[in-house]
């Protein structure tokens, strides 16, 4: 098992890529702390525990600094350490720049960027104390190349990449790595409202001629969270079927 006895916090772990990460990490031996506001997170944790894994669910918003700080303190008290932080929680509020409201801008920045800042700030205290840590945050290939109607989303994902590179410099001496993953088009709940013909057009534009499944992205997280990636830090791993070539 590649994550045996590791304590891993996965934000946004109730569905989609986050759920795939939580389930895969549990199979690889980690104790998974699922953080999400969606009640399905409890079901994911229960399913993991019922199949021999170890998981907990905590209904906490990544934008609530006080609650996040308390959560990480509680995790450390209970488990004695914190090894892995997966900053996966994220939202979209798509609209062209001219039509985008300030609320749509603020809500995406609050979750996708500030939430990553809050969670990582809370986590590194415990990682530094143990001279060990793996921080892997959700970027997007949109953060590398932009996308129509996603000024807010693209800005936050580019920011996540920049923050990860900064944390590499700040925390490397404590045995902490910081990386980002930039998924491409992935078949999650976020694409449910997209017309089928548009989905097919997107698939046709991808060199591999198919969309990613959540598990495809989860395997990238597994690598960067494992000891196999001991000397990998400050990178953005793009998993998009060749779209960002």
UniProtKB/TrEMBL annotation:
* Highest taxon in the source lineage: Bacteria
Question: What is the protein name stated in its UniProt record?
Answer: 3-oxoacyl-ACP reductase FabG
Q: Name one GO molecular function term.
A: 3-oxoacyl-[acyl-carrier-protein] reductase (NADPH) activity
Residues annotated as domain Ketoreductase: 6-190
Statement: the UniProt record of this protein carries the keyword Oxidoreductase: yes
Note the InterPro entries from the entry. KR_dom (IPR057326), NAD(P)-bd_dom_sf (IPR036291), SDR_fam (IPR002347)
Q: Which SUPFAM superfamilies match?
A: NAD(P)-binding Rossmann-fold domains
Q: Which UniProt keywords apply?
A: Oxidoreductase
Q: In which family does this protein belong, per the annotation?
A: Belongs to the short-chain dehydrogenases/reductases (SDR) family.
* SMART domains assigned to the protein according to its UniProt record, in alphabetical order: PKS_KR (SM00822)
Q: What is its EC number?
A: 1.1.1.100
